[in-house]
Amino acid sequence: MITPPNYTPVPGPGSEPPVMEVGHSRIRLLWARTRLALHSFRTGWSIFMESRIGVLSLVIIGIFAIMAVVHPILMLTIWDVDTYDPVTGYAFDQVNQPAAPSWRHPLGTDPLGRDVLSQLLWSTRSEFVLGITAALVTVAIATTVGAVSAYYGGIVDVFFMRLADLFIALPGISLLIVLSALFKLNLFYLALVIGILGGFGGTAIILKSQALSIKVKPYIEAARVAGGGHFHIIFVHIIPNLLPLSLLYMMFTVTSAIFAEAVLSFLGLLDVRMSWGIMIHTANTGGYLMGGTRYWWLVVPAGASITLLCSAFYLGGRALDEVVNPRLRRRHD
Amino acid sequence: MEASLAHTPSAETERLVSVSGLTRQFPVGRSLFRRATSFIHAVDDVSFQLSRGDSLGLVGESGCGKTTVGKLLVKLIEPTSGHITYRLPGLDVGEGTENVPVESADISGGQLRAFRRQVQMIFQDPYESMNPRRTIYDTIAEPLAVQGMGTVLDRVDMVSEILMLVGLTPPATFLFRHPHELSGGQRQRVAIARALVVEPSFVVADEPTSMLDVSSRTGIMNLMQQLAHGLGIAYLYVTHDLAVARYMCHRIAVMYLGKIVELGETEELLRNPLHPYTRALLSAVPVPDPGHRREPPNIVGDLTAPIDPPARCRFYDRCPLATHHCRDNPHPAFEEKAPDHWVACYEV
Amino acid sequence: MTNPQSAPVLKVVDLSLRYLTRGGAVKAVQDVSFELAEGQALGLVGESGCGKTSVANCLMRLLPDNAQLVAGQVLIDGQDILSLTEDKIREYRWQQIAMVFQAAMNALDPVYKVGQQVVEAIEAHGVEATVSLARERVARLFRMVGLDPALMDRYPHEFSGGMRQRAVIAMALACDPRVIIADEPTTALDVIVQDRILRELKGIQQQLHMAVIYISHDIAVIAEVTDRIGVMYAGRLVEYGATEDVFRAPLHPYTAALMGSFPSIAGEKRVLANLSGEPPNLIDPPPGCPFHPRCIHATEVCRQEIPPRVQRGSQWADCWHPLEESAVPESVEAGEV
After folding, report:
1. How far apart are CA B234 and CA B16, in angstroms?
2. Among the four B70, B196, C130, C184, which has the fewest Cβ within 10 Å?
3. Mean of the per-residue pLDDT values of chain A
4. Does residue C265 belong to the interface with chain B, where contact is any CB pair within 8 Å?
5. At what angle do helices A172-182 and A187-200 cross, to 10 degrees?
6. pTM of the model
């Protein structure tokens, strides 16, 4: 029999994170946690800002956000409702409609005499609401479905995966066209439908495969030995480790939602007062799309906005990808 | 197998864990619509006991089923057949039934919670056994939190105390770090802290030092021994390294393809190995002494997987002593060939 | 292979290497010198991150882009291979010096047959004129490492861990190298397989009269297969000598601590020494002796000045307070405090 020797404690590394005495207060605990959260946010942020596409996407999204905020301010201050309302306004100061850009109407007016800039700014807000709602719905569903079907496996997994196959097989836009014929699709319902299609479809499969690789990690077994139940393991261990990837797919869903809205509006199938798609739709029904570049202000602002905002969210997703794999990055340092 | 139940020296009441006829098979090539036709006999009819404060080393090559035994004992997986009986404080089946033996199969619900406080595990991989997104505090406090032990502030104190106990001082510098900020040795100290924070009576350690560097390895081994002795914890130490098992354990059990082939008091087993497999294993271990000369291990062939093994001695194909008797009879019974020295072999 | 035993086949002189990283230059190898004669086996031991593998990569000239050779020479038969051009180096690699990688570490390409991979190595270096001659050679190599030549047309996934390691050894032997570097050749293998492979490597070494460098963290393996040992710490060779002498009476406290921390199945059961603390940061290593923060014998001079070289018979160490021969057991005990 041997006697256990005295051991020398391993000296702790530097004391960068919060230092506390053994007797602490709740406030100190909270403060330590906040600093920790801030610290990891700052690290993630600096990685994000290191990639050029990340900065670019942020700048573009920032500009659109400003545009969305500016519209109500302009309506309250220098724009009168009769002239500048995006739907019911009429530019009495112009003789011919659509009118070319001028000082009073920087992006001209549409065939019905409405100010194009006002329409563009007004629509920005709804595009954001649509994109983000659809993305949140998708990610909430996909993360839960992915985690649950990976964790339980068996019949639960089979059910959700066949459901996903079905949703992928459904042609998205055509389905939306059918739905819009049956129901009055407003932006909120559209966001919901896109969210459900994505959430039970492809995104769920991607998140499930990620969840499968988390499920077999020894820390899941360690959590079970600690006494954690199914609920604890899914929500404390699996889902938080899925979230970075979820966030990435959230960005991509925003892109597809904005694009789907543009297509449906262009076809005139949405119950929406104004949107970028409707702007192009209006130009098209008036026959101005055939006129070459002569009536550019009817098409270019809306078209460019759709392209820019979609790519900005996509690029943002790509930049997040770098942040999402922190361990991958750290090995390069 | 019944005979083996009697081989622990300690009294009946001191017995913490009794394993008898423990068997676990894994189906090969099963799917939702196809029933498996062959099985890996990962653990086959294994029996042993552990008493309070005892330490048993489970030694064998990769794939011999030693980790499966560990997981069965902490109820991460359930046995195909056989019994595990625990006699643990707080694990009673009703009024006034303190310290009554409880069958593993009967533990569920509220009893499982009590069980999780008494039986803990230390995992092999210090890099993968902790959730990378959770802090050291979250990791160690997890068993306390899921079992609702103490308030948040109590838990911070408990975690700080255990951090000091495992040599991570001052605790405040470690509490809110993430695992990737620590070295392998420090993480394994955290893993020990997580296992011990609920004050268990029995711990399964699954090769806790095999992935560590030389310098931190000794520290972890010494720490584990010191804490186990100090807190009176019994442990099952799963390892492939006989030298480590010798250092860590009172008794050693040698496993081969799902069977325990030899079990005995550590020094006795190393001095006087009886089973031909134990002998081969011992003679294959390199010794850090250039003057030491070893005979090549007396064993033939390569390790195979125990998929539907034939009903004879598992070691028959590789055994230097194998006879017709070994071939024509089932796997030999586990017998006490010397005091407290158990062997499963016809030829010794 | 007719050179006299005494002529060193490999000579490393004052080798220094660093890696340029964002945090600064990591001084991975510093002033490492040693010699190796034909038929000799050298073991390099130390904790992970002590520079063992960096030395091996220097010898193979397999260095990542951010590596910078600061100084030194690696001479094989008097030819400095560090000054060779990239074209020349390809001829030299495998024919003069070859490496046995850890088989677990993707040393074999899973999409090609194992024999094919060895044949290609032989063809690429023009050792055999035709494919059929090359295949015959591979069959010979397979037999030499204890593999059935019929296994040549199998894929790596059909091999067990031990067989894969044998195939990797056969690959290293493909072009009759004069020096072989075995980097953790048996880590991740079971003891019985490890024992067989070490015995075979040793047999091949004696049969072909090769020089072998073993790199391992397992000093028990090193003790059995080598006749020279080099102990590395923080990028420096801190002790070097005949394996038996170093194990019997280490000069450097680090060597003693390393040996004292290894459990053994032979001999009396003893308390293992705790080597407390962690190896130093190699971007900004401590001044003086790199081991002083963890050394129980450290004094003021160790903290300030680079230690001198102390010689005793075949053995030398860089230390201000080398251990006496008789003081060894005591120093091991002391290591735990």
Report:
1. 8
2. C130
3. 81
4. yes
5. 140
6. 0.84
Distance CA B230, CA C33 (A): 48
Residue pair B85/B13 in contact by the 8 Å Cβ criterion: no
Two tokens, residue A248: 């990435």
> What pLDDT is recorded for position B3?
40
Residue C194 CB burial class (10 angstroms; 0-12, 13-18, ≥19) = buried
Q: Is the pLDDT of residue C12 over 90?
A: yes
Residue type, C31: D
Q: Give the H or E element holding residue A265.
A: helix A239-266
Distances from the Cα of A28 to the Cα of A21, A164, B334, angstroms: 10, 46, 59
Strand partners, A121: none
- Count of B–C CB contacts within 8 Å? 123
Q: Are B223 and B305 in contact (CB under 8 A)?
A: no
Cβ(C104)–Cβ(C185) under 8 Å? no
Residue type for position A175: L
Structure tokens at C109: 């390409």
Mutate to test the interface with A, among C274, C283, C296 (most CBs of A within 10 A): C274
User: Which residue's entry shows tokens 């008036």?
Assistant: A286
CB C195 within 8 A of CB C203: no
Query: Whose CA is closest to C320, among C293, C300, C294?
Result: C300
Q: Which of A4, A26, A36 sits opposite B176 (nearest CB)?
A: A36
CB of B257 within 8 Å of a chain C CB? The answer is: no
Per the structure block, which two tokens stand in for C34?
């040693």
CATH of domain B2-287+294-330: 3.40.50.300
Both tokens of B313, joined, read: 């001695």
Beginning with the edge strand found earlier in the chain, give each strand of the sheet holding C41-45 in spatial order: C97-100, C179-183, C211-215, C41-45, C228-233, C236-242, C315-318, C309-312
Pick the closest to residue A64 from A257, A309, A324 (CA basis).
A309
In chain C, which residue's Cα lies nearest the Cα of A12?
C277
**C-beta atoms of B213 and C47 within 8 A:** yes
The alpha-carbon gap from B270 to the nearest alpha carbon of chain A, in Å, equals 15
Which of helix, strand or coil describes residue B236?
A: strand
pLDDT computed for residue B94 by the predictor: 59
Find the range with the poorest average confidence among A188-192, B28-32, C194-198.
Answer: B28-32
The label of the residue with tokens 């009554």 reads B100
Structure tokens at A206: 């991607």
Report whether B167 contacts A10 (CB < 8 A): yes
**A231 close to A172: Cβ distance less than 8 angstroms:** no
A73: helix, strand or coil: helix
Say what the ipTM of the complex is: 0.87
Q: Rounded CA gap, A298 and A279, in Å?
A: 7
Confidence of residue A331 (pLDDT cuts 50, 70, 90): very low
Contact check, Cβ <8 Å, B221/C265 = no
The SS3 of residue B336 is: strand
CB distance C50 to C234 below 8 Å: yes
Confidence of residue C156 (pLDDT cuts 50, 70, 90): confident
Do residues A284 and A200 lie in contact, with contact meaning Cβ atoms separated by under 8 Å?
A: no
Phi, psi angle pair for B214, to nearest 5°: -50, -50
Domains in chain A and their CATH numbers?
56-89+105-326 (1.10.3720.10)
Give the C-alpha separation, C221 to C195, whole Å.
9
Cα separation of C331 and A69, whole Å? Answer: 75
Please, is A244 exposed, middle or buried when counting C-beta atoms within 10 Å of its C-beta (0-12, 13-18, 19+)? Answer: middle
| Residue type, position C287, single letter | P
Where do the structural domains in chain B lie, given as residue ranges? 2-287+294-330
Burial of B193 (0-12, 13-18, 19+ CB in 10 A): buried
Amino acid at B189: R
In 3D space, the residue among A139, A90, A136 whose CA is nearest the CA of residue A113 turns out to be: A90
